[in-house]
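Sharing a chain and its predicted structure for anyone who wants a worked example. Both blocks are below, sequence first, tokens second.
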Amino acid sequence: FQIFLKMNADAESDKMMYCASCGTPEVDDVKLKDCSACKLVKYCGVQCQKDHRPQHKRDCKKRAAELRDEILFKQPESSHWGDCPICCLPLPLDQRKIAMTGCCSKTICSGCHHTNVGRELEGCLDHKCLFCRQPTPNSDEEFKRNMMKRIEAKDPVSIYQMGFYRNQEGDYDGAIEYFKKAAGLGDLGAHYELTVMYRNRHGVEKDKKKEVYHLEKAAICGVPFARHNLGCIEEESGRPDRATKHFIIAAKLGYDNSMKTVKEGFKGGLVSKEDFAATLRGHQAAVDATKSPQREEAELARKL
């Protein structure tokens, strides 16, 4: 049986050394290119790929979907916020516990921000950015000037922030333009905001495919609420297994809403005892990783 498996593997390997359409072997002067979608076969040229398409289409779609799912359902190492650049601890998901600098567009935790403000007040020091050490903006006008400089430098965070302001003002066309630019530069918040725009028809036609596309882009890179929304869509579409995978991944990133959903799934028999226990541990570990004495002190000060 092992000999048969080895022979089968060798045969598959040999297939990858020839053009799937015309059979041309890969030699020094002939370089074959993988099918970009499935990576299962190789071609010597575009015409061979077109000629072979009718035979290959079904297998290609199936394998491409499998490869996509491998990427989509991989557990991210951390949320999209990443680590605070000052204390190097993971940033919390609660946006009330983080702050964005008005000069260099860095996101820092409330603990570092609170500690720095206290140090400046105690020492009667000028207010400076904790990251770049530049004086903090003293007015909205100065803040906007700094933002425009960052936008001109193609900073995706600042471009996203301008889109956010445009959206709040009701300028949906302007918001869409900025969000698309920021998403193109890799800003995950912009991807998520675009899903909201396509779902609510703000400045664009309602488009489910584009909504899901941007949700997947954001989810793959660790945006837990995008992941949770994908789970809701899968659930509505009658695919509870896929929905549960999304909820578990989001819960392990520390997202409370997904943890509650996984708990309900466990009660309803959709989540196994082992998966539920692993999700609980992952969720608690993600939440604990964002805690520090400085952040707790900042939270107490915020509630006063």
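Comments welcome. The first helix runs from residue 2 to 15.
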